[in-house]
Amino acid sequence: MAWIYLLIAGALEIVWAYAMKQSDSFTRFWPTVIMVVAMAGSFGLLALSMRTLPLGTAYTIWTGIGAVGAFLVGIMVLGEQASAARLGAAVLIVSGLVMMKLSSAH
Q1: Which regions span the lipid bilayer (predicted)?
Q2: Which residues of the chain have pLDDT under 50?
């Protein structure tokens, strides 16, 4: 169950990062509300996952999901640049996440 909490927490991290961008420095009400709710949910589920998972594993996976997810949203939704170097960096992050999961005893 801890891994499910962690995956949902990572997805919510992507939501709050995107909502923060859409809030226009917290000047738009609904994106700001979505950001706060998603952030609270993300942190709460991360905390629940840490009841079972080691800190290093849980936090690394959580931030990795958020980083790669926000990167992909930036490219697919916001039209940000998808250079070879940026894509390579994302592949390295995902590789690190896979290695972290494979090396976890849980």
Answers
A1: 27-47, 59-78, 84-102
A2: none
